[in-house]
Design a protein that fits this description.
Pathway: Cofactor biosynthesis; biotin biosynthesis; biotin from 7,8-diaminononanoate: step 1/2. The chain has six helices and nine strands. The protein is an alpha/beta fold. It has a single domain, classed as Rossmann fold. Strand 8, helix 5 and strand 9 form a beta-alpha-beta unit. The N and C termini lie close together (about 10 Å).
């Protein structure tokens, strides 16, 4: 069984949709270690609504914070301190999809970031979406993960931008899993179609 950690080059790049697609493709369990804001419509709720299989289990977040901000700031508002020792990976015999919050260097407390939640055995999937500055953000994200020795791949989100994607691939030389297009909406059927499309890329050695 494999563990996939989904991170992005920033916020609102499509991590939750990608997490839903991977969860469906692998019939994996899903876990969001830290949820900040949208408590009644969390990323866990969204992914659960989007998948069709009955095998996936949804594990409780270690921290559920009320304000949609960087976890360290949201925790401060709630009067709590996030400790990595309390963020314990759920035990499962299934594949596991873990969704991060924002990008790698989003602080979770005064000394640690989302990067500190990623373990050496995780397969890290970087969600990259084209915007002015996204090449820099993507290259920095991947460079940091490579320097740490992680197994890294990319999944593009949004409309294709050929020159952007080509230079990212040339400069990083990491595997490209595929693309999630700019769709009018995402529902169970759309997620299932992408899951079937990407399943082979995820299950290959």
């Amino acid at each position: 069984m494999k563990t996939y950690f989904i991170t992005g080059i920033g916020t609102d790049v499509g991590k939750t949709v990608v997490s839903a697609i991977l969860t469906e493709a692998l019939q994996a369990d899903y876990w969001k270690p830290i949820q900040a804001g949208e408590v009644n419509n969390s990323d866990s709720h969204v992914v659960k609504r989007l998948i069709s299989n009955n095998k996936s289990k949804f594990h409780d977040s270690a921290y559920v914070l009320n304000t949609p901000m960087s976890p360290h700031a949201a925790a401060d508002i709630d009067g709590v301190s996030i400790k990595t020792k309390d963020i314990i990976e759920p035990k499962t015999k299934n594949n596991l999809v873990i969704e991060g919050a924002g990008g790698l260097l989003v602080p979770i407390n005064n000394t640690q970031t989302i990067l500190d939640l990623i373990k050496p055995n995780y397969n890290v999937i970087v969600v990259s979406r084209h915007y002015l500055g996204s090449i820099n953000h993507t290259l920095l994200t991947i460079k940091l993960l490579q320097e740490k020795g992680f197994n890294v791949s990319i999944l593009f989100s949004g409309n294709e931008h050929e020159t952007t994607e080509a230079i990212i691939q040339k400069m990083t030389k990491v595997p490209i899993i595929g693309r999630i297009n700019e769709e009018p909406y995402f529902d169970k059927n759309v997620i299932k179609e992408y899951a079937e499309l990407l399943k082979g890329k995820l299950t290959s050695p």
